[in-house]
Amino acid sequence: MPELPEAETIKRGLEKTIIGKKISGVKILREKSFKGSPEEIIGKIVKSVNRRAKLLIIELQSTIYLVIHLKMTGQLIYESRKSRKSRKSRKGKDKKSPYDIEKLPNKYTRVVIEFGDGSKLFFNDLRVFGWMKITSKIKNKKSKTHIKNKKQQNLKTNEINQIIGEKFGPEALGEDFTVGYLREVLSNWGRPVKLFLLDQKKIAGIGNIYANEALFCAGIAPHHRGRELVRDHPKKVEKLYKCIKKVLKKGIKYGGSTASDDAFRNVKGEKGKMQQHLMVYGKAGEDCPNKCGKKIRRMTLGGRGTFFCPRCQR
Question: Which helix (H) or strand (E) holds 264?
């Protein structure tokens, strides 16, 4: 499932490609994947692209929003007329994978959004868990139909919360996520700290990959209980805070992680590169990157594969 760095990578890609464009058509190839009437967004211009946790919000004219959750295997692939020709010339050169983008639409395409200039946005989803949803749930938001120089005005957090209708904790890279907040909430958490990091109602945007990486960076065992961490190792709480920010920014820098499931692609259909820089995730049996003499172990916490060094993480 795309985490904050992957969702942010897609958001930034969409900002560069679809803002200012008018939606000319919507083709729904799988009804389960699209909620709402496509007629509501046809003829509307894209004003901005936003992200909350792992969700994407495309703001359109007339205070209408297209909320997208990619879930496990969702992809958003943008194709201009130029990139369409380029993709045809690359066909067959890469190793075969169900997530490779050789032609569009393909058998995993669920929705196609067409723009007035002939470009298209394809929503692919092999396992069909993801969705697109039209909504207009927002109060006191004035719609401005004129877009100057394709520059966007990002929605505020409270506006996004109204749109998506879900409760999330503070953004892991946002101003509301502070050391004080982390310490306070962890002090009431009696379960493993890794499960805390995965709880979107506590912190928004962290998933399994970056939770593993942040805990290794901070030298904290994933099964260490939250309140015990605050009580016995208060300095590690501050280090964990810094490491969360560090690994997420690193993930964005390298364009997200296309891990062992091979699902993640950016809007150009390209893989991320963060997997080349992971320290422990997916590396069970390999030597600890700190060269401590131990090997990375794998355990299961909350049904998720968890990777850690038994010596460096206490």
Answer: none
* Domains of the chain, earliest start first: 4-164 (3.20.190.10), 179-308 (1.10.8.50)
Assess contact for 236 and 203: CB atoms under 8 A.
Answer: no
Q: Report the C-alpha gap between 189 and 175 in whole angstroms.
A: 22
Catalytic sites, residue numbers:
2-3, 54, 304
Q: What share of the chain has pLDDT > 90, as a percent?
A: 81
Does the pLDDT value for residue 150 go beyond 50?
no
| Residue 292: both structure tokens together | 């401590």
Tens digits of residue pLDDT in 240-274: 999 999 999 999 999 999 988 899 999 999 999 99
Alpha-helical regions (H) of 135-233: 157-164, 179-186, 193-198, 208-218, 226-232
Q: Mention every residue, 6+ apart, whose C-beta is less than 8 A from residue 45.
A: 20, 21, 22, 23, 60, 61, 145, 147
Give per-residue burial for 7-16: e unless 16+ CB within 10 Å, then b. Answer: bbbbbbbbbe
Q: State whether residue 180 is helix, strand or coil.
A: helix
Mean pLDDT across 132-136: 93
